[in-house]
């Protein structure tokens, strides 16, 4: 049994079914519409950006809180 021919056939049928979306994405992200690149993808990108920023700010606040707690002298 020729395994390489079988794999080559399976790979070629898979690639024929997939459409190249890169040119569509290039048009979307290179369009001069005044939006920053991190929100050009639409509502999903805006929600992901806000979620990421919220987690980042909350994590920074949490770290600063524990650093402040660690700097305080211990009571006896």
UniProtKB/TrEMBL annotation:
Traced from the root, the source organism's taxonomic lineage reads: Eukaryota, Metazoa, Chordata, Craniata, Vertebrata
Q: Which residues cross the membrane?
A: 47-71
One Pfam family cited in the UniProt record for this chain: COX7a
Q: In which pathway does it act?
A: Energy metabolism; oxidative phosphorylation
Say which family it is in: Belongs to the cytochrome c oxidase VIIa family.
Annotated source species? Oncorhynchus mykiss
User: Where's it found, cell-wise?
Assistant: Mitochondrion inner membrane
Topological type in the membrane: Single-pass membrane protein
Which key words are in the record?
Membrane, Mitochondrion, Mitochondrion inner membrane, Oxidoreductase, Transit peptide, Transmembrane, Transmembrane helix
Has the keyword Transmembrane been applied to this entry? Answer: yes
Please, one GO biological process term? mitochondrial respirasome assembly
Keyword Transport: yes or no? no
Q: Got a GO cellular component term for this one?
A: respiratory chain complex IV
The primary location reported for this protein is mitochondrion
| Protein name per its UniProtKB record | Cytochrome c oxidase subunit 7A1, mitochondrial
Organism's domain of life?
Eukaryota
The GO terms describing molecular function are: oxidoreductase activity
Matching SUPFAM superfamilies = Mitochondrial cytochrome c oxidase subunit VIIa (SSF81419)
